[in-house]
């Protein structure tokens, strides 16, 4: 067996807590992130994901616990930590008074970087973000996907070792999301550590080597997407629709089919290792669903198992 050198830990959190008065937004979570990993925080709105990101970025003080970024405390050594970070906020905050390329140059000056470095770096990042032909355009003239790519390009101006992405594709159409995913894959191939929050299950499965499922400020589960699906779900899921008024009634009649049944307002989910066999069992009992679909299990199924509600509440 070849010897694999462990990657150094770049982020370490122990009992990390954030309170706002009597409200606990982050409730004693612990995790480690090794260099070069794509690490995700998955959960619904209000779960504590963005609050955790703000503490990592050093813009929000923790109420309790320990947190180090590359061995540094972001509260005590904020400037040193931020020098190694790139931040992509949930909402684009580009300077709309400036042209596309100038957004990169001006942002780079905040880090004290010389123009001799910034000029070629800006051109390199615009090419990376597929925005070279837009470099003289006004930010207002860009599409939502272009603005998101420009925000990511801007976050890379200081060659960060860690990139924080808060809901990176919210509001984008499918084509723009896939282009953005490709850019993030390329960053990971370069060795950049990615920390991202999302409530999109497919995004977490595509981008994350490992993730934590967070709800109400607490970690519900941790692992790779595939390991979480194996642990908390079955190989396949059978989705059935009998009509809004009949779903719950029919579900009660189907107990014993598959390993577990979940009743949602619009459909019934039957978790089974063989979805087609489960469907044959149900039709053999005389039930005729309006629609039926057999699919592989996903992270959404994991979240339903852990919290009993959908990720996109």
Describe the fold and architecture.
- The protein is globular.
- The protein has helices at residues 49-56, 78-82, 100-110, 115-128, 144-155, 174-189, 201-207, 225-232, 247-253, 275-284, 299-307; strands at residues 9-20, 23-34, 38-42, 64-69, 85-88, 162-166, 193-198, 210-215, 218-223, 236-241, 260-263, 268-272, 291-296.
- The strands form three sheets. It has a six-stranded mixed beta sheet with strand order 5-6-7-3-8-9, sandwiched between helices. The chain has a four-stranded antiparallel beta sheet with strand order 11-12-10-13, covered by helices on one side.
- The mean pLDDT is 91.
- 34% of the residues lie in helices and 27% in strands.
- It starts with 8 loop residues before the first strand and ends in a 6-residue tail after the last helix.
- It is of the alpha/beta class and 313 residues long.
- Helix 5 (144-155) runs parallel beside helix 6 and helix 8 packs across helix 11.
Number of helices: 11
Count of separate structural domains: 2
Average of per-residue pLDDT values: 91
Order of helices and strands: EEEHEHEHHHEHEHEEHEHEEHEH
Order of strands, main sheet, comes to 5-6-7-3-8-9
- Examine the secondary-structure arrangement and name the CATH architecture of the largest domain: 3-Layer(aba) Sandwich
In CATH terms, what is the fold-level topology of the largest domain?
A: Rossmann fold
Give the CATH H-level superfamily of the largest domain. Answer: P-loop containing nucleotide triphosphate hydrolases
Radius of gyration: 23 Å
Shape: globular
Portion of residues in helices? 25-40%
Catalogue the unreliable spans: none
CATH class identity of the largest domain:
Alpha Beta
The major sheet is characterized as:
6 strands, mixed
């Amino acid at each position: 067996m070849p010897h694999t050198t462990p990657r150094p830990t770049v982020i370490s959190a122990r009992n990390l807590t954030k309170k706002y008065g009597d409200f606990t937004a982050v409730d004693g979570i612990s995790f480690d992130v090794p260099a070069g990993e794509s690490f995700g925080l998955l959960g619904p709105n209000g779960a504590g994901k963005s609050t955790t990101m703000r503490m990592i970025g050093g813009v929000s003080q923790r109420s309790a616990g320990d947190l180090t970024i590359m061995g540094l405390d972001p509260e005590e050594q904020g400037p040193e930590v931020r020098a190694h970070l790139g931040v992509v906020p949930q909402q684009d905050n580009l300077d709309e008074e400036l042209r596309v390329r100038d957004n990169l140059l001006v942002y780079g000056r905040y880090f004290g970087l010389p123009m001799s470095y910034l000029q070629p770096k800006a051109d390199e990042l615009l090419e990376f973000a597929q925005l070279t032909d837009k470099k003289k355009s006004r930010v207002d003239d860009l599409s939502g996907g272009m603005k998101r790519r420009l925000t990511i390009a801007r976050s890379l101006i200081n060659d960060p070792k860690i990139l924080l992405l808060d809901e990176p594709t919210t509001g984008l159409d499918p084509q723009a999301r896939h282009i953005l995913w490709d850019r993030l894959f390329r960053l990971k191939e370069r060795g950049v550590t990615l920390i991202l929050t999302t409530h999109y299950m497919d995004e977490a499965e595509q981008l994350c080597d490992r993730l934590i499922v967070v709800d109400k400020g607490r970690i519900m589960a941790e692992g790779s997407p595939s390991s979480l699906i194996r642990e908390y779900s079955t190989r396949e899921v059978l989705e059935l629709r009998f009509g809004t008024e009949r779903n719950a009634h029919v579900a009660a009649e189907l107990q014993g089919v598959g390993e577990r049944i979940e009743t949602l307002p619009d459909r019934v989910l039957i978790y089974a290792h063989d979805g087609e066999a489960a469907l044959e069992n149900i039709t053999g009992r005389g039930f005729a669903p309006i629609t039926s679909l057999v699919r592989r299990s996903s992270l959404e199924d994991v979240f339903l198992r852990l919290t009993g509600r959908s990720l996109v509440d």
